[in-house]
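Repro case for the chain-ordering regression, as requested:
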Amino acid sequence: MSTLFQPLTALSGLPADAIGDVITFGNDQPLTLDSGAEIKPLTVAWKTYGTLNAQKSNAFLLCHALTLDQYAAGTHPVTGKPGWWSSMVGPGLPIDTDRFFVICINVVGGCMGSSGPHEVDPATGKPYGLNFPVITVRDMVRAQAMLLDHLGIKSLFCVAGGSMGGMQVLQWAASYPERVFSALPIATAARHSAQNIAFHEVGRQAIMADPDWQGGDYLIKGTTPRKGLAVARMAAHITYLSEAALHRKFGRTLQDREALSYRFDADFQVESYLRHQGAMFVERFDANAYLYITRAMDYFDLAADYGGSLAQAFRGSKTRFCVVSFTSDWLFPTPESKKIVHALNAGGANVSFVEFDTDKGHDAFLLDVPEMFATLRGFIGAAAQARGLNAKADA
Amino acid sequence: MSTLFQPLTALSGLPADAIGDVITFGNDQPLTLDSGAEIKPLTVAWKTYGTLNAQKSNAFLLCHALTLDQYAAGTHPVTGKPGWWSSMVGPGLPIDTDRFFVICINVVGGCMGSSGPHEVDPATGKPYGLNFPVITVRDMVRAQAMLLDHLGIKSLFCVAGGSMGGMQVLQWAASYPERVFSALPIATAARHSAQNIAFHEVGRQAIMADPDWQGGDYLIKGTTPRKGLAVARMAAHITYLSEAALHRKFGRTLQDREALSYRFDADFQVESYLRHQGAMFVERFDANAYLYITRAMDYFDLAADYGGSLAQAFRGSKTRFCVVSFTSDWLFPTPESKKIVHALNAGGANVSFVEFDTDKGHDAFLLDVPEMFATLRGFIGAAAQARGLNAKADA
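-- result from build under test --
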């Protein structure tokens, strides 16, 4: 089992099983990466919700986004807040845990128990830090497939996720088409855009500019690059919202004051909000993990593995797809989803596409968008019927 | 005359007159600020292009944007590059220096010779740093009006500027309507949006997170917050472009390599470009000035001074306005310009409005957009005719 070298601040005092289920594969089962490097031994941490049926046909894989983790439902052990898709995952909810066996796996490179820069390198007894190999979205998916093999799950009823989770969904459908009965890529893209790479690079530079980052060795040296990581988060957080949402939520409203301070205090609520987002983030996330996972997203270009043809990635796929985007998402705007849909159609796949009208920006996939719930319930229900999965009442 | 305490890196070795013309007003002529504080003595640095006519009726004021300065044309003494509007300002160009007396003034709070945090506080003999009072766009315009009074220019033929320069144009038209014959607010807004405040706050936090910022005292302590200022610039620079422009210029093209490095090098051209933008910026701009000027933009809300009515700000104005926006500008999107146009119309002003179709983003106002040149040439020409200014041939 993997060792957390130095727990994230708020992990301190948590019970050992707080990260969920964990497996460390033997050295005879390394994870061979796109870079050619190996992770050996490989540790994977995950959570499950619901029960696997006898046919092992009701497994529903959720792929998490950049800074999220395996806590899709229930209460997050670090933040004490509901899991990231609590509104979607649970008894009677669109991803019905009375009906499906929901699995969510911490990505390789993350910081909630799976192998990553925050973990101890068994070869040295010290935290990996920047000695951890650079990983890709395909590497994340490979590790997930190894876990599913271990669990004896040959075929997934559905793979779903938003943002980087959606990238994993697309990678799953391309790499293991026979293992994916249905797929829900949400608010995502088949390749990361120049603008998105640029924003990620700003975040990485902010982290690396912090002297407490210590060239990546902060875990050994007992520091935390709080300020740099907070700035990275603040910049990224703006991209998760929309101008309209920021205007609606904050406008130019002042924070706890009647007039401008004529100082550099957080005069405006939006400043105070951003500072708070930055401060909270450093309590739950590892700076090096942020570097690795943003890099994996930047590297994502699914068509590149198929001679530059995205359609080729999905050629002959029997997977049922539902591609989802949001009108106000400027990080993964609708044209990116349409490119996926065009490629799926060109590849002869079964695909539906829905764009939801909302001002909530990219984060809409995590928020209360009733039309999305209704649509996903419909898509999942139809797919379950096609899969021959009984509703709870008939189970 | 003001004293540059410690020159910006590349200012070293420049001749003393490199910043253009400079005046320091007497202590009996302080600049009284919106905050209630005073700048005393006030120093203002400016550059002129062309010749003031006998009637002093051909003065054309250019208001510069956040990180620009009085070098609108000619060669910039620090960067060695052409002035920021060299394509627009010169003999025979739309802002024709054979015809107009062009004035461009370094804003108060800036770092090219006007009073600002980079300058020595005469009261202490030390650099102002954070002891410099927080200034507003209206304060900038007040200082400009003092200089024009000094130069005996009662009425400006035109006031033009983009971005924060456009804010100054609007402030000029509102504060001194009788002194502004025509006005060209470009790619701007009458109030800074929550999203724009948020981006500025990220930049400020990046600067203040740098230990070399030294609580604002870096000039005294002999350090420079290079890394923080570079991160601030990188984040801001993304907002000056458009996703389409970034895609067109860089896409996912690799920088000087055939394949991904699987490291944290600048694999992608867009990363290398951003790092370069950050590195260049710290050679020419002062970190505290960046704090002050971004703050001034955030504070800008013209209607607030007129009971919340933007139309009231322009009530009865005789100024001829041409409001300009760009389709791909997401920092100051067209709806912001339309709000200005609506207010001008409601205030009974003479206004035309043009939105140019370009993928160049916010920075389009500084770039080669032939349709913009043609339109501005037309607007300026018609205004000059109405003003009774002869063309060069008739002079």
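Ordering looks correct now. Chain B has eleven helices and 14 strands.
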